[in-house]
Amino acid sequence: MSGRSTVHVEVTAIEQITPQIKHFTLRPVDRAPLPAFSGGSHVVVVMRAAHRVHRNPYSLLSAPSDRSAYQIAVRRMEESRGGSEFMHTQLQVGSHLEIAHPVNLFPLDKIARKHVLIAGGIGITPFLAQLEDLHDGAIPYELHYAVRAAEHAAFAERLRAREGGRVRFYFDNAAQAIDFDGLLSGQPLGTHVYVCGPAGMIDRVLATARRWGWPDSHVHWEKFSAPPSGRAFEVFLARAQIGVKVLPDQSLLEAIEAAGVEVPYLCRGGVCGFCQTRVLEVDGELLHHDHYLSDADKLRGKSIMPCVSRANCKSLVLDL
Ligand code: FES
Q: What is the span of the domain harbouring residue 41?
């Protein structure tokens, strides 16, 4: 998908649900049914700020059966490069936005015999839509939801009311922690585990699952990286024959888009591989921040994921 395929939506409700998280309801401007999606999907929200365009991915948390509106939740990031700041400070009820069609890179497995969902902080959002899919089925599931303190547990009331004993909360400030070994050592055959949250939590779940012999196909994780800031650098786009400057707080992808060149993308978080771009020349170091290329590919230096990666170099020439 490129930035061309978007739906125009209006913000019809905004609610501050924790000290850092706002919950947004987005309705299509033309009131036609929104594109269908399944639990675990995200949309890329296009934010047109005064001097630049931000495109950030957010999980859809509304019921997939409701195509009259989408709901997303946005955490205000202290190190925000502008996207979450824009969502928190610039949007009001009545504001208009563009969103790309939903994409699901974190679906529930269709033949799982049981689902174990593990969320940390804002990582709860993809699970909210998945739970809507799970309610009516016969497949057992459980949700483990860890946050710093009770006031940071977004959607806690909704989860308690709807999930009852199937959800368990863990509060860091009460010294409660998920026992990953206990959780992953005793699950019935055919169970799939899903984790979304801070990188440390995801890494622990993956390591624990590996230790207990879980097949990779039964372990699912969503780890979108925000593009990190860095030094400014120059890139030359060989096919377009233009030079582009990448500013310190801008991603390589954003800089290329701002120059009018389209690059395909789905996640904008270093996961899907859609933005993979051939490196024709580099005089310096590529700074890979994606989760897609293998370590060997990163060493080879022939490809880059411009959504999250950048370069520390004198010159970089890309096949664009
Ligand atoms: S858009 Fe998915 S890896 Fe770059």
A: 6-103
Tell me the sheet residues that pair with 311.
286
CATH of the domain at 143: 3.40.50.80
The structure's pTM equals: 0.93
Ligand 1 atom, smallest distance to 292 CA:
3
pLDDT tens digits along 202-249: 999 999 999 999 999 999 999 888 889 999 999 999 999 999 999 998
Domain contains 79: yes
Give 139-161 pLDDT, tens digit per residue.
Answer: 999 999 999 999 999 999 999 99
- Rounded CA separation 257/306 (Å): 11
305 lines ligand 1 (CB under 6 A): yes
The alpha-helical segments, DSSP class H, found in the chain are 83-89, 125-135, 156-163, 180-185, 199-211, 252-258, 295-300
Residue where a domain terminates, one of 103, 131, 156: 103
Q: How many domains does the structure of the chain reveal? A: 3
| CA–centroid distance, residue 276 to ligand 1 (Å) | 7
